[in-house]
Amino acid sequence: MNNLFTNILYHLYNLMIDPLLNADFISGILVLMPFVLFFEIPWTLFILLGIIKYKVEERAKGPRRPYFPTVSCIVTCYNEGRDIEKTVISLLEQIYPGMIQILLVVDGAAINVDTMKAATLMEKLVNKHSNRSLLVLPKWQRGGVVSSSNLGLQFATGQIIIKVDGDSSFDNNMLERATRHFEDETVVAVSGCLRVRNADKTLCAAFQAVEYFISIQTSKTALSEFNMVNNISGAFGIFRREILDLVEGWDAGTAEDFDITIRIKNYFAHTRKKFRIVFDPETICFTEVPESFAKFLKQRIRWEGDYPFILGKHRHSISPHLLGWPNFLSILLSIFTSIVIPGMVFVYTIWLICEYQIDVAIALLSAVYIFYVLMLVVLYLVSVLLLSERKGSDLSRLHLLPLMPLFLFIGKINSLVAILWEWVGKGHQDSSMAPWWVLRKSKF
Amino acid sequence: MKHEIYRLILGGELIAASADLSGSYHSVAVMLEELKEPAIILLDGLDPAEDHLLSETFDVIYQLRRSPIFYAAPIYFTRSMASLNPFADGIGSRKEDILPHASLILSRMQNISIEANAAYHDLQLLTFLFCRGDGYSLSPLAITASPWIYEYPAAFLIGAFADTAIQATLRFGSAADEKSFKEKPGSSAEWLISLGMQGLFVTMELVDRIRLCPYCQTGNFNYIDSCPLCKSIDFTKKKMMHCFTCGHVAPEENFKNGMMLLCPRCNTALRHIGSDYDRPVESYLCNSCSERFIEPEVNADCLKCRNKISPEDLAVRQLYNYGITAKGKKAVQLGNINFEFSLFDDNRNVIPAYFYHVADWLLQMKVRYSDEDFSLLCIKIVGLETAESRLGVSQFKSVIDELATRIRELVRLTDITTSTGANTFWVLLPRTNQKGGELLASRVEKLAEMVSLEKGAQIHIQVKCFSIPIEYAKRGPVAEMLLGEFETILLNDQ
User: Fold this and answer.
1) 217-256 in chain B: CB under 8 A from chain A
2) Residue B285 forms beta bridges with which residues?
3) Complex ipTM value
4) How many whole angstroms from its chain centre is CA A310?
5) Number of structural domains, chain B?
6) From the CA of B272, how many Å to the nearest CA of chain A?
7) Residues B62, B27 contacting (CB under 8 angstroms)
């Protein structure tokens, strides 16, 4: 065992210092290289470039203009109970001179008595404030998140519609940040930045906080710079009212967030109008993430499992001709990251173990791993420096970075399993987003 | 006997059938002039939608209840008059609807002297209740214009409270005559409370609780919040903020920096409630004295005397339904309640039933323990009515007060007293034999001479001491019967 470890270190040393000395390594690296060079490095550079572009443009922008459209927040509630108070209070705390309408849509209000009670209590509190109103919409029988959103839309009066989940809360400048983009007529929606509220609770939650920071706050800022935002989060999406009317709200079925993004994109592709979906890294929503690894994996199966289902639904509309090249590329990219990459990594690992001696294989894997960690540290530090509004909190999780690639890899494999399950067994009908009797009726 | 129904016609559409009626009047003044006996009165030609009819109807019923003939008479509306309904005995347009109820009232009137009882408001109100039978009670009605917020409709009319209280609002009524009250209460509710304390009325269900100004006894307030230090009402709500990073607590505006919140002490941007900052308390800043406070002081601002009173200092009054007591009934039958009740200390002046009970009990004690003896003193004061009319109310009152003081000096703490009729009082003297009783009797008798009277007025006090013979003990409760007999003996002595 001790011998094996020494061997690994030896190989690793050789790999780092002088890779050309060892023929085995060279062939190993040849397999490794295209993957790393042709995807990971450009991807990281692309993100860094995007962040810097964002920062430069942000500096060049003048002061905020007094544009404060009326806003309706559709809060979809289920069994959150008194947690919805956090959501409502953080909406009440918004430093925003415009009118804010809060719509609490309580799904299955007959069984979710606590949620209903909390919602009713909040009604009195909110309506005491000028320029703020709260309406509770009880859906006595459970009908799913899509029906909640669409019901809320029927009662919404604002020019801007915000759709959020009942267990999230917001920074007090969220609306001020979100609405400023809509002054630009071409902006149809703003994708908000999700952060983890319970990051300090468990290790698993802390890992997810790092993951959210990299994959949302950092990556989407870059994507937005090149107009390639491919998803408006279901937990936190901000829309121009007319756009939701044009696409007639959300569709039944799962992954309604990705679905509505594609439909918005299709609409504009059809009408050949210029449009933009903006991601704003400072429009911040805090959300609760699973605190145990088991729950985390289960949640990801649910999310990623929906991916092929949506692609299947929209297979005719996914083309550069309809979506335009940036959007088409961004969708390809997301297919690539959620289906191709996990597959490649998995196959590569298996191949490595079969092809090489165990010590060499582990050394190679470690080399790849260290490479990933270094790349991540650079990306993370630059992002925290340029983008993070909570630098202290983000830097406090720096020590997790060496383990992050492993965490992400497990997540990816988990996703792959989910995707395969979706292909084989129609997993999206398992979704807890809506009861089976609703999903069964859905024509998708 | 035949019960006559008279109709009083107001301006609206007539409903009652003429065949049922003994006569119709268009004016309440003419009616009061012509009718000399209580009868059933039917107000016809009503319409609750017409404001002037509402006001006229109230005016008519008010005049009827204020008259010495009709203050207790059965009065009905031919149709509902909305808020005025509690002021009438009922609603009905046909003879068969109202006659069963009205006959009962009229037949009870047969046994009492309606005209004699009209002398005092107290007696009038007692008579009103007496005629409506045992189950009847007076219920409070919310009238916002009343100083007490609540009035008892019948008492409100009979006691002429509409004049003082609501004239301005309701625009009717004649000048109040204050003579009928020793000291006019502020409202019919206050009047009933005092009648209740005299044992003439009994409280039944508790209906509501009100709070009154301790200075002017009115219940119209503006509840106003003000600065606890300088009492100014000019203050602003200030939301306090608490920075989690450095612990700084200050009003929200100190944190406002453009469109964000920035801690003025540690310069941290406060973005998220619950994780960066919270609002520990809402406080207030007085604009006149700059005092900071958490809770404004709430005071009741009396709209009449403009005193600002702390809510806990407001006078609490319970509003009950009131029924008539045996004592009240007796007053109605005897036609007198007078000032007798002030003669004895309230604590030891009991209702006759209780007095009889104690007397019977002492009689049983006397049977069992031979050394136990007790005497009964019967006191009758003669000439009070004439003295009152000659001396005038205020002077008469001081005479009575003097008399009361002297009687109280003679009566021991252990003695109990009661009043069984017009100016007739009983004193129960425990552990006092016939001899001791007679000694006390002679002293009380002399009191009349000591009371100085002018203008030829005279007050006589008749006193006699009685003791119940031990043989009566076997016959059960006898006190009530014997006291009646003793009273006759006293009268015959005269």
Assistant:
1) 256
2) B236, B292
3) 0.77
4) 16
5) 3
6) 5
7) no
Contact B272 A95 (CB under 8 A): no
Burial class of B125 by CB neighbour count within 10 A (0 to 12, 13 to 18, 19+): buried
Distance CA B57, CA B148 (A): 23
The 8-class DSSP code of residue B349 comes to B
Please list every residue in chain A whose beta carbon sits closer than 8 Å to the beta carbon of residue B259. 64, 95, 173, 176
pLDDT above 80: residue A392: yes
Whether B213 maps to a domain, the answer reads no
* Pairwise CA distance, residues A234 & A162, whole Å: 10
Packed helices A358-386 and A41-60: angle between N→C axes, nearest 10 degrees? 0
Question: B229-266 pLDDT, tens per residue?
Answer: 998 999 988 888 899 989 888 888 889 888 889 999 89
Could you state, in order of their start, the residue ranges of all structural domains in chain A? 2-55+330-441, 68-292
Whole-structure pTM over 0.80, yes or no?
no
In a domain, B222, yes or no: no
Identify the architecture of domain A68-292 in CATH.
Answer: Alpha-Beta Complex (3.90)
Instruction: Tell me how close the Cα of A170 comes to any Cα of chain B, in angstroms.
Output: 6
Among B272, B279, B282, most A C-beta atoms within 10 A, so best to mutate, is: B272
Flag if B261 and A90 touch (Cβ within 8 Å): no
From the centroid of its chain, how far is CA B130? 16
Cβ–Cβ gap A173/B271 under 8 Å: yes
- What average pLDDT does the structure give for chain B? 83
Between A90, A169, A172, which is nearest B261 by CB?
A172
CB-closest option in B260, B274, B275 to A95:
B260
- For residue B276, the enclosing domain spans 228-295
Residues B12 and B150 in one domain: yes
**Whether B260 and A172 lie within 8 Å, measured CB to CB:** yes
Q: How do residues A322-347 score in pLDDT, each as one tens digit?
A: 667 777 777 777 777 767 777 777 77
